[in-house]
Amino acid sequence: MIIAIDGPAASGKGTLARRIATHFGLHHLDTGLLYRAVARDVQRSGGDLEDAAAAAAAARAIDAATLDDPALRLPGAGEAASIVARVPEVREALREMQREFARRPPGAVLDGRDIGTIVCPDADAKIYVTATPEVRAQRRYLELQGRCERASYAQVLAEIRRRDDRDAGRAASPMWPAADAFLLDTSNLDIETAFNTAVGVILRKVGQRGRTR
Ligand code: CDP
C-alpha cells in the first residue's frame, strides 16, 4: 500500500504522515528532508544554492543515512531546499530514490509536494493537506519557539508565503493537488480530527480499489 500526502509548508502533513504510517504499519519518508539535505550539501561544499549544476551533483551523491541531521530542521533550511527543488535534474535524481522507498514491502507513506502527481501517481490513496498561510505560520512559529529558535511570527509568515509562491510557481513538478486527491483543510481541525478524517479517506479508497481490481 502506498499513501501520498502532499501540501504546502507547515500544513501538518508531516505529523499526519507519521501517524498514518504507524497506524497502518507502513514505512514513512519525509521527502522534504531529501531537498533539505541537497541544499545543506551544496552549502557545506561552499557552493551557491542558485548553481543548478552544483545542486544536481549534490542530489546524485545524496546519502540517505544523513537525513536525521538536526541541521535539516533549522530555520532557513526549508527555504534553501525550495531553491534547489526548482532544478529538474535535482528532482530527477531524487525521484527514483523515493520510488524505491515506496516499493519496499509492506508499503509506505510519503509526504511532500509532488508525491501524488509525479513520484507515485498510482498511490492507493492521496491526500492534499492545506491550511491558511496564517494558521500554518502560527503552527510553525510555535514549533520554533518550542525548540528555542529565534524567529518572529511575521518572519515565519513571510517565509511561508515566499515558499508557497516558489513551490507552486516552478516549472518542474509544481506543488499541486493531484486530480484524485482528497483535499483536507486543517485550518480549523485539531490533529486528532485531521488524523481520523485521513484514516477514513484511506480506508474508503483502499476498499474501492480492492473492488475494482
Ligand atoms: O516541512 P515543510 O513543509 O516546511 O517543508 P519540507 O516538506 O521539508 O520541504 C522543504 C522544501 O522542499 C519545500 O518548500 C519544497 O520546495 C521542497 N520539496 C519539494 O519540492 N518536493 C517534495 N516532494 C518535498 C519538498
Multimeric state: single chain
Separation of the first and last Cα atoms = 14 Å
The distinct bound ligands, ions and cofactors come out as: cytidine-5'-diphosphate
Q: Radius of gyration, Cα only, in angstroms? A: 17 Å
Principal-axis shape: globular
Helix and strand run? EHEHHHHEHEHHEH
Low-confidence stretches: none
Helix content: 40-55%
Protein described:
- The chain is of the alpha/beta class.
- 54% of the residues lie in helices and 11% in strands.
- The protein has helices at 13-24, 32-44, 52-60, 77-84, 88-103, 115-119, 133-146, 153-169, 191-212, and strands at residues 2-6, 27-30, 108-112, 125-130, 182-185.
- It has a 5-stranded parallel β-sheet with strand order 2-3-1-4-5, with helices on both faces.
- The model has no long low-confidence stretch (mean pLDDT 95).
- Bound molecules: cytidine-5'-diphosphate.
- Cytidine-5'-diphosphate is lined by residues 9-10, 14, 31-32, 35-36, 78, 81-82, 85, 112-114, 163, 167.
Secondary-structure topology with pairs:
Blueprint: E1 2-6, H1 13-24, E2 27-30, H2 32-44, H3 52-60, H4 77-84, H5 88-103, E3 108-112, H6 115-119, E4 125-130, H7 133-146, H8 153-169, E5 182-185, H9 191-212
Parallel strand pairs: 1-3, 1-4, 2-3, 4-5
The protein binds cytidine-5'-diphosphate (CDP).
Cytidine-5'-diphosphate (CDP) binds at residues 9-10, 14, 31-32, 35-36, 78, 81-82, 85, 112-114, 163, 167.
